[in-house]
Amino acid sequence: MDIDKKMSYIDLRIGTEQFAISVSKVLEIIRFDQITHVPDSSPFVLGVINFRGSIVPVIDMHHRFNIDCNKGQNKMVVIVDLQNKDKNVLMGLLVDQVTDVLEFEYSSIKSVPDLGIKYNPEFLEGFIEQEGRFIMVLNIDRVLNLQELSDISLIEQD
Amino acid sequence: MELLIEGQDVEIDKSILKSIESPLKHIIRNSIDHGIEPEEVRIAKGKSAEGLIKITAFHAGANAVIQIQDDGGGIDLERVRECAISKGLIPKDQVVSKQDLISLILEPGFTTVENVSMVSGRGVGMDVVRKELNMVGGSLEIFTEKDLGTSIIMKLPTTLTIIDTLMVDVSENQLLIPVLDIEYCFKDCNENLFKKDNRYIQFKNSPIPLVSLRERFGYPAGDHNEIMVIVINKFDQRYAIIVDRIIGEHQAVIKPLGELFLNQHFFSGGSVMVDGRLALILDTNFLYNQVIKI
Predict the structure, then answer these.
(1) Is the pLDDT of residue B198 over 70?
(2) How close A20 comes to chain B (CA, Å)?
(3) CB distance from A40 to chain B under 8 Å?
(4) Model confidence pLDDT, tens digit, residues B153-172
(5) H or E stretch covering A76
């Protein structure tokens, strides 16, 4: 990878936080509409949707990052393709807003400081500073770790 | 004995293949054990000393057909008739067509040991064979001719990915239940079912366990008093599930839920509905095991 080449990132909001995800992983951005709830699945999984005729799970990013979910807002689902062993693995990320497409060099991503970050550092590739704001760049393969997400023992007992 | 196999290139779904393995073995064993006569009998009948079993597979429309043919003695329909009369299945002097007599062999009650040995072993578990085929949407036909042999035809769907389902509503969620698993549906009210301590209902004079899908899936109790009870019959074991209401029938094209749901067993897949939304297909096997465990 040419680290000085400009790369496109999608700028998205989860709660009031700003995140970025590489467009190379993104297939489509759709409006969050109907979802089918799957009982007895991991709490991160909101449910499944029909995306171009196949079943795609939707992960609630609020839950994953422990961010309060603003109710009533029109939400978006970012469909990403995690290539796993030559297989397309599609997943939807439920976010509050998709605002922009950003372009910056990979080399401009600063590594995550050990302190002062409230999110799991494994989920982040780093952050970039833009117009005085910090945007966290997601390591989407880590955020959507299949094994972790499907672990049924994580289901909250009430 | 000679075994002839034709049509080895016919392809069927792996899941179906698994379910026809034991029926197929059963039929072939029957042919060898009871169909093909001893050598001296065959020679006396003017047949070749060596018996022949021919297995042919071919496609017919959306079905795959497997035909198992032997050149043995055929099913002794006179004995079948006698047995049926002694069992009270048919009146003594009623004329019964050949095909009706054959279908008697497939009746569950016709497979007790004494009857089986009398009709030269044919009928041993033939009802089980038929049931196993029915379960995957297949069917069974038997043709037999005295002294010429028996031919058994298994018709199988080539794929299981399209199934007929009943769409039900549980707390505003649409679920699909395979029609093949459903024995009976009726309306009842919450009070009737839950006022007792035990979770059983009477069905056909025997108690069967009851499971509320709302409860099982962690949905809040509904405020409707009127609910639907669906009796599921799985391998002759019954249990009843409670849903809010029945929406209608749906021909489901089954799609896998994907790796994320490998640890989840309530549903065997999903299907896209007319409005583009997804409905989940209930795994009646898993639920059964769950219900029995309680």
Answers:
(1) no
(2) 24
(3) yes
(4) 988 877 666 788 999 999 88
(5) strand A76-84
pLDDT in tens, B54-78: 999 887 766 788 999 999 888 888 8
Task: Indicate yes or no: CB of A36 within 8 angstroms of CB of B277.
Answer: yes
Q: Look up the CATH number of the domain holding residue A46.
A: 2.40.50.180
Among the listed residues A131, A55, A147, the one whose alpha carbon sits nearest the alpha carbon of residue A99? A131
Q: What pLDDT does residue B98 have? A: 83
In this structure, what token pair is assigned to residue B39? 């050598």
What's the structural domain count of chain A? 1
Strands of A6-14's sheet in order across = A97-105, A6-14, A17-22, A133-138, A124-130
Cβ distance B174 to A36 less than 8 Å, yes or no, reads yes
The predicted model scores a pTM of 0.62
pLDDT of residue A94: 93
Q: What is the DSSP secondary structure assignment for residue A93, as one 8-state letter?
A: E
User: What is the ipTM score, two decimals?
Assistant: 0.79
* Chain A interface disruption, residue of B250, B266, B278, most A CBs within 10 A: B278
Taking the domain B162-293, which CATH number applies? 2.30.30.40
Considering only the beta carbons, identify the residue of A39, A57, A146 that sits closest to B266. Answer: A39
Of A53, A57, A151, which has the smallest distance from its Cβ to B258's Cβ? A57
Contacts of A40 in chain B (CB under 8 A): 217-218, 264-266
- Are the beta carbons of A36 and B280 separated by less than 8 Å? yes
Q: What percent of chain B shows pLDDT beyond 70?
A: 89
**Which bin fits B159, alpha (ψ -120 to 50), beta or left (φ > 0)?**
beta
User: Which of the four pLDDT bands, split at 50, 70 and 90, describes residue B197?
Assistant: low
Evaluate whether the domain defined by B2-157 bears CATH number 3.30.565.10. yes
